[in-house]
Design a protein that fits this description.
Shape: globular
Number of strands: 3
Strand content: under 5%
Order of helices and strands: EHHEHHHEHHHHH
Distance between the termini: 68 Å
Radius of gyration: 22 Å
Largest sheet: 3 strands, mixed
Helix content: over 70%
Strand order of the largest sheet: 2-1-3
Length: 315
């Protein structure tokens, strides 16, 4: 058991990341990989935002929620990826105590917002597929705004609750984090107190929310498919085609989260791989999945790209 210290005995002012690898060649490869997908993710999600806001044909609840998801994915990319890429070329990879707390705050804020947005998108698809005649009545602008505000409130509350666990913990050494970013499972282990109960509370909080939201979404998608299948086999195939994109995004988002917060055994290499996947690849894959499966979005994006090229040529 670790000795108990008061919060004001904390001596650690910064944390040192052990990083991803010691090999210069692999670091260079990781930088090229991360920077490519980070740039593509920011451009892809920005294009979705621009397309949805500027094209009147896309001013519907589904695309409103998709634009919000793209905005959040830009945040997911930016919380950890830029520092990770910067640290690849540094021998001494450090982050201040305040910077570490800020990373944890934004990771859980954005994660909470995205969970609620994915649930809202599942509800939107349920109404559109199962109650098409009442779609515009149910998914009116007030409901869309409510979902957005609720998502940010849930994300903020979730993040503040998580921070309440760690912000006053005493840290008196060591200060090495075997990761490339700050998060609760690794930070708590460095505290100068017995953290068994604290680790359980964090696991119960983030783990329960992640697993619960994941099963709510999967059950809702299964319900939609079964409901449509009773009425028309053609309708069920169309519903499956539409929902496959949503289900893929849900699995990509929740898979790493569930592993991080519920897996009881330490598995650092896999943690790091999933961390890179979650920070770099998932925000890139989301716009790809949604746009490639949506003909209306592809047409609108081609239209906006032509307008941008024409504007540049005129300028």
């Amino acid at each position: 058991m670790k000795p108990l210290y008061g919060a004001n005995h904390s001596l650690v002012s910064e944390f040192v990341f052990l990083g991803l690898t010691k090999s210069w060649e692999i670091q260079l490869l990781l930088f090229m990989f991360s920077s490519t997908f980070y740039t593509a993710s920011m451009m892809g999600n920005s294009l979705i935002l621009l397309t949805v806001t500027s094209d009147p044909h896309l001013h519907s609840p589904m695309y409103f929620l998709l634009a919000n998801l793209s905005f959040i994915d830009m945040g997911v990319s930016s919380v950890t990826s830029p520092k990770m890429m910067y640290d690849l070329f540094r021998k001494h990879k450090v982050i201040s105590f305040g910077g570490c707390i800020a990373q944890i705050f934004f990771i859980h804020l954005i994660g909470g917002v995205e969970m609620v947005l994915l649930i809202a998108m599942a509800f939107d698809r349920y109404v559109a597929i199962c109650k098409p005649l009442h779609y515009l009545t149910i998914m009116n602008p007030r409901v869309c705004i409510f979902f957005t505000v609720a998502a940010w409130m849930v994300g903020l509350i979730h993040s503040m609750v998580q921070l309440a666990f760690v912000v006053n913990l005493p840290f008196c050494g060591p200060n090495m984090l075997d990761s490339f970013y700050c998060d609760l499972p690794w930070l708590i282990k460095l505290a100068c107190i017995d953290t068994d109960q604290l680790e359980f509370m964090v696991m119960a909080n983030s783990g329960f929310i992640s697993v619960g939201s994941f099963f709510i979404l999967i059950i809702s998608y299964i319900t939609i498919i079964l409901t449509v299948q009773k009425h028309s086999s053609v309708g069920s195939s169309k519903a499956l085609s539409t929902l496959s994109a949503h289900i893929t995004v849900v699995v990509l988002f929740f898979g790493p989260l569930i592993f991080f917060y519920t897996w009881p055994f330490p598995s650092t290499p896999l943690d790091k791989f999933l961390g890179i996947f979650d920070a770099v690849l998932t925000p890139f894959l989301n716009p790809v999945i949604y746009t490639f499966r949506n003909q209306e979005m592809k047409v609108a994006m081609r239209r906006i790209c032509r307008q941008l090229v024409s504007y540049r040529m005129i300028s």
